[in-house]
């Protein structure tokens, strides 16, 4: 146990026969449960893990591959059955330093967060070492993840080294949580709809010679549409279904003004192009002023949305008592 909390480490593993024993042997003694989920590996990952002689270990085998998200959720629910209160996800490839476990769970233990994730780029040194194209893509996807989740103070949304208070898991809609490489980002989006508090902690990765299964090209093609849909869903639910606030009013008026200016301007530009007659100053101003006003209103709604980031953790209020058991 750690500070009277029962801790479980969940390890989704796919073809990690050569690495899984090293990961298991590095887990601290204060961890209560270790759940390895072999996601239909084609090698002996499950058998190798099962040879680790430790009563804390539970090995689960998926008959069919479900992806890292599916394997992690299986491990989360099994850990809850075992009575764990804090659920930690570590990958089976050895890239996540177990020395960071204490830092990862501390905000949850102190009642400051519901979910904590590692951030490899908190100080920017590692980000600066990336090729500029990959860095640009990482920054762009992180910004879109902020929009989609509502967590404006986080970065590195695809980082899989995470900790979650077990009381939060039953609140989440598993149908909305992606089962493969979009898992971590989709989990952030689902947490945002419940206004769970999320914190970043700096934990650099240990890459070694491991080749990531995540294709950067696929991420740049597949993630943006999912993030855009998540953003639209969040805005509709948070500002038009559950409540109607100043943000709702600014969004409505901003989009109406922006669309009116765009349509008016486009139509009269087309008329001028067809007739060869230059539009009057008044016609141009009728397009420009709503555009400027609409952009200003949308920017103001963004400012208010950033200020609306959740700050009160959920888990103390969902626990049987207000203090750790």
Describe the fold and architecture.
- The chain contains eleven helices and seven strands.
- By secondary structure, it is of the alpha/beta class.
- A seven-stranded mixed beta sheet has the order 3-2-1-4-6-5-7, sandwiched between helices.
- Strand 1, helix 1 and strand 2 form a beta-alpha-beta unit.
- The longest helix is centred in the last third of the chain and has 30 residues.
Q: Brief description of this entry?
A:
The chain has helices at residues 20-25, 45-50, 67-81, 101-109, 125-128, 132-149, 183-193, 216-241, 246-275, 281-307, 315-318, and strands spanning 7-13, 33-38, 57-61, 86-89, 115-119, 162-165, 198-202. It is α/β, with parallel strands linked by helices. The chain has a seven-stranded mixed beta sheet with strand order 3-2-1-4-6-5-7, with helices on both faces.
Write down the secondary-structure element order.
EHEHEHEHEHHEHEHHHH
Helix content: 40-55%
- Radius of gyration, taken over Cα atoms and rounded to an integer in Å: 24 Å
Alpha-carbon distance between the two ends: 11 Å
Biggest sheet: strand arrangement? 3-2-1-4-6-5-7
How much is the average pLDDT? 90
β-strand number: 7
- What's the helix count? 11
The share of residues in extended strands comes to 5-15%
Strand-pairing-aware structural class = alpha/beta
* Biggest pleated sheet: 7 strands, mixed
**Low confidence ranges:** 320-325
What overall geometry do the principal axes of the alpha carbons give? elongated
